[in-house]
Amino acid sequence: MDDSHRVLIETQFRDLSEFYPDLRLEENQGEWVLKGILDFSACYENTKIQDSFQIEISISAEYSKDLPAAKETCGRIPLDPDFHINPDGSFCLGAPVDIKRKFAQEPTLLGFINNLVIPFLFSFSYRERNGAMPYGELSHGGQGLVEYYLKYFGITSETAVLNLIGILAADKYRGHHDCPCGSGQRIRNCHGNEVLRLRAIQSTREFLSEYLAILLHLRKTKKALSNELINQQALTLIKKEQRALRAQVSGK
Amino acid sequence: MPNPVNPYENFADRWHENNHERAKAFFQWVAWARRDFLEILAKNDIQKITESLAGSLGERAVASASSKLSLSTPALFAPAYKKGSTVEITNPSKPWTRNG
Prior knowledge:
Chain A is an alpha+beta fold.
């Protein structure tokens, strides 16, 4: 086990313990887990909620490149996608680029809990009390990604989202190309900055899997668009993905 | 041009050799380093900054500096709240689910 990794986690845990003394840190063969009671008080707009949850946060050997994963261990939050729980029981805190961006602003265990886990638990508590989500929610899968990116880019066309994410998935940003939003401007004078900001957050592979999720969602919902969508770019991407998978399998 | 590592040496004394080869390499490096520093001004992610600086300053130097930075300068990531206080939720993420 790398010593600097251990020092990093133990240092961050000490800071965390000052705020949340009922969480303990356990190590098992390079995998670290934070376990215990998260007792918090949080405020959103004019609503203040005090609550506590029994949680478990796993920290991989790739932390802090990979984000920790948090789950609730007392059975209070139903293991149901409608409650934003992933198949493995972990919280789905938000759209992937959104949570990575938020984590990067304060890349510590304490930051992860305060900026991501507590807002998630707050919205569950709020929903238990009031029957509604305090700051809304995204749909599942590709549709939720489309909703997130529509707002992020400030556009209304779902096909434009597909093509903007396609640039990132193919790693083919060219400032002089036309912006996919349909403004008729070059991308560098239009949505270029937004695209470049995303490129700094996630890998091409991660954008490729989002691209495919968005593509599948649009094909399901918009039959009329299917010819327009199955373009050369999409086919190249899918072939590239298959090649990468094959290479991965034969490499192991 | 003084050499900071060895003050008795003229850093540029052999720059004219081989058609100014060393001078060219030096100014090329300065241009790269300048470009990297300018690009970094637009970034706020320590990980990305580390990656881009490693290109011109060398991986070892940058890795050792950045690991010291995050351990010894928690103030850089200093939380804005105090023990026992309420977490102010601002600009929260909307929850999502991977499988639709």
